[in-house]
Amino acid sequence: MGRVAGKVALVTGAARGQGRSNAVRLAEEGADVVILDSCKDVDTVAYPLATTDDLAETHRLVEATGRRCLSRVVDVRDQAALDLLVSDAVDEFGHLDIVSANAGIVSFTPTWHLSDEEWQNVIDVNLTGVFHTVRAVVPRMIEQGTGGAIVLTSSVAAIRASRNLGHYAASKGGVVSLMRTLSNELGEHGIRVNTLNPGTVRTDMIENDAMYRIYRPDLESPTQADIVDHCRRRNELDVPWVEAVDISNALVWLASDEARYVTGVVLPIDAGLLAKA
Ligand SMILES: NC(=O)c1ccc[n+]([C@@H]2O[C@H](COP(=O)([O-])OP(=O)(O)OC[C@H]3O[C@@H](n4cnc5c(N)ncnc54)[C@H](O)[C@@H]3O)[C@@H](O)[C@H]2O)c1
């Protein structure tokens, strides 16, 4: 018997990375999964975002577990498209119990050099996109009257100072504040709301040439091998990063009845990055 057996989960930004891993782990634990991704690059983001092929692959992986999947290209900045997907998902699967608001982007610029566009893109996707997701699902979850779990993906950047990430840290700090308000508002409905705060996670957000150059500006063409030591030194545990599945395992726990009395919590999964003296 899976730990979220019989539940229906929605995962945003699910075409790859943590979102894909979240979708597959929830399916492995018995949930049917609704997945969405914008599958479109953003001008102010220096690495490519996911593709429709990536989204199709997540769909295939979810179905390979034996669970049902509904997938669609949706941008979390588009409230109407989110509302329609949630409505279609409830028509198809009957209910919605778990939400992983995971879609996100990053870029690195000193705060006073940020253009309006770069600032706004990060706030729109990472913070307003989470708000839109919540606004699409909460009325349904309240109406069902069976409680639920909403897990918002924040970051250690919400807690710890990080140069060149003013916009990103503001968005992820906003997500934590939103979570606290929601956990307050939704407790009476049995809906728990928590954040996951990943440290460095080995996904395409980190594994790309632009990021390697940010970590190693001293090298002309740095590769992943050149950033391992830098990343390892940031962590208390002797690893450079965590894997997407480490985040997903925490998500499964938060989404399951094992965490039935856990709400309003900020949960770092960071190999001790925040604990490091
Ligand atoms: N990788 C890390 O080190 C790290 C650390 C802390 C927090 N995070 C957060 O974890 C989450 C997942 O990131 P990841 O590491 O899997 O990176 P990723 O780039 O592999 O995945 C992000 C996904 O979100 C999708 N996406 C982007 N904008 C979207 C939009 N407007 N609408 C819908 N989908 C959109 C992308 O296409 C992509 O599939 C993000 O919120 C990120 O900020 C990542």
From TrEMBL:
Top-level EC class, please? oxidoreductase
Matching entries from InterPro entries are given as: NAD(P)-bd_dom_sf, Sc_DH/Rdtase_CS, SDR_fam, SDR_subfam_1
Q: What CDD domains is this protein classified in?
A: SDR_c
The UniProt entry, under PROSITE patterns, shows: ADH_SHORT
Q: Cite the entry's keywords alphabetically.
A: NAD, Oxidoreductase
SUPFAM superfamilies linked: NAD(P)-binding Rossmann-fold domains
This entry's Gene Ontology molecular function terms read: 3-oxoacyl-[acyl-carrier-protein] reductase (NADPH) activity
Does Nucleotide-binding appear among the keywords? no
Protein's recorded name: 3-oxoacyl-[acyl-carrier protein] reductase
